[in-house]
Design goal:
With about 250 residues, this protein is of the alpha/beta class. It has one domain: Rossmann fold. Helices cover about 50% and strands about 15% of the residues. It is built from 13 helices and seven strands. The protein has a seven-stranded mixed sheet with strand order 1-3-2-4-5-6-7, with helices on both faces. α2 crosses α3. The protein starts with a strand and ends with a helix.
């Protein structure tokens, strides 16, 4: 699927692909877009079922990633640094497993989906319930993760956010329907395809043993915690985030 997108910057510069999280769109990245485009060709996409892209199941990580790969290829974007936030972090990881990339930055999305399943379980009934119950559950999910997000940014995200129940449930179907052991096996299979430098950057602590767990699966991974910044670290401290992207790129190309 060719995704709705924005492509800015210079074709001769290194490429970056930006992938948003669940219920968000490419607009989430707007505060960073033009800064990144000063020295990069930047492609920001709307995943299927999000933003201005078409709704068409399935909504699994490999399908999402394949759409991004196909869109990048159609636009001549090659060998990018792929940056994904939340769900986009899983999609960026899948991208690296199936297509050439110089590296991955995964923003606040632990890949230990078995732990995510346990955390999501108390909301499963509401998410699968009436439209109002679903909306209340989504509000609870995001309210718990905002952290010190500035009020204007919170309002901007809420304005652009669209929670389609079918898309959300389709995205999380494997989490609901698989056992924790099956989820661990799925993640291990995906992670085994990641051979490039991988930065896992978190504003919410993924747990004391997460770094060792991830590095066992992805030996190229670095896990970094920016304490108490919440889910949107890139919007809470945008200058610091841009500097970290530049430092990661320097490491990748050294």
């Amino acid at each position: 699927m060719l995704l709705a997108h924005e492509l800015i910057g210079h074709a001769d510069d290194p490429a970056i692909i930006l992938i948003h999280g669940i219920t968000d769109s490419r607009h989430m990245w707007h505060p960073l877009l033009h800064d990144l485009a000063q020295h990069h060709l930047v492609l920001a996409v709307d995943l299927r079922g999000h933003g201005d892209s078409d709704n068409d199941s399935p909504y699994d990580p490999i399908t999402y990633a394949t759409d991004v790969v196909e869109t990048a290829a159609a636009l001549g974007v090659t060998n990018p640094l792929v940056i994904g936030h939340s769900l986009g972090g899983v999609v960026a990881s899948a991208y690296a497993a199936i297509a050439p990339t110089v590296g991955v930055i995964n923003v606040d999305q632990p890949l230990r989906l078995s732990a995510f399943k346990a955390g999501l379980a108390p909301l499963e009934e509401m998410l699968k319930g009436s439209r109002r119950e679903f909306e209340q559950a989504i509000e609870m999910v995001f309210a718990a993760m905002d952290g010190p997000l500035p009020a204007e940014e919170k309002a901007r995200l809420e304005h652009n956010r669209h929670a389609d129940q079918d898309v959300v449930l389709g995205t999380w179907a494997s989490v609901f329907d698989s056992t924790e052991e099956e989820l661990d096996e799925t993640v291990a299979a995906l992670a085994g395809g990641i051979k490039v430098p991988y930065l896992s950057l978190h504003g919410i602590d993924p747990g004391p043993d997460y770094a060792a767990w991830l590095q066992h699966l992805v030996p190229t991974a670095t896990v970094e915690l920016w304490p108490d910044l919440g889910h949107y670290v890139q919007l809470v401290e945008p200058k610091r985030f841009l500097e970290r992207v530049a430092a990661f790129e320097a490491q990748v190309h050294s």
